[in-house]
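Dear Dr. K.,

Following up on our conversation at the group meeting, I've run the structure prediction for Alpha/beta hydrolase from Companilactobacillus heilongjiangensis. I'm pasting the input sequence below exactly as I used it, so you can double-check it against your construct before we proceed with anything downstream. Let me know if the numbering doesn't match what you have in your notebook.
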Amino acid sequence: MHYIKAENKRILATNGVEYAYRELGERTGVPIVALNHLSANLDNWDPVIIDGLAKNHWIITFDYEGVGGSTGSVPDTIQGMAKDTANFIETLGLKKVDILGFSMGGMVGQELMELKPELVEKAILAGTGPRGGKGISSIIKLSDRELLKAIVTFKDVKTYMFFTRTANGKSSASAFIERLKIRKDDRDKTISWPSYRRQLHAIKLWGEDRPADLSKIEQPVLVVNGDDDIMVPTKPNTYDLHERLANSELIIYKDAGHGSIAQNNVSFVESANDFY
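The predicted structure tokens came back this morning:
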């Protein structure tokens, strides 16, 4: 089974939210729950990454409340998304998980470890930074600028937001966008414009919020980013996140941006499998 063929599943939480999710790999051991980026649904995970992790792990992807196939309304804070994530995990009956948080998902992952430290065993935080990090509150202006550029050039906005504009970055962007189109059947529902804007404002508020005491996070964490992330600036955010966590490792990919794990998917899978 490959991710592009994974079944769309649904589960109803006690608060009435019905979550859409997919799972892959043998259902043993501690599962990896993947926390997605701004505007993303189930189809936005790089299938190379999910398939690579599923060879050795049970991995679960899901839509946040109000996104894609999940019902309800998008929470208006990152902390609310962490509560939403905990609700999904507990609804599945899971007592302990590893997490893979990419971009906004890495922010959600940090808040989840503060909210429910007993729930998370290990975490990978990719393309993200700490609460109150430099430049994070500029997300709306940045996203609007890059979206306009994408519309004018008839390209997917992730081309500009996730990848460098070098030859390597451009070819990696094209390959990634094509991988996201491989699944033809039972595709997920695109996020609505109001829900997307709600997520944007939640990230802006998180960037303006007081810094968290990350030293309280004792779980092993792998921090990953490219050396030229324009969405969550690598310097100082990625290095700051690594330094403030009590038990973390750091990977910085050269000539890579926000979507460095997709640009370096094979290498990333190897490192992630070693870490988990």
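Two things stood out to me. The mean pLDDT is 97. Strands lie at 9-12, 18-24, 32-35, 59-62, 97-102, 120-126, 221-226, 248-253.

Best regards,
J.T.
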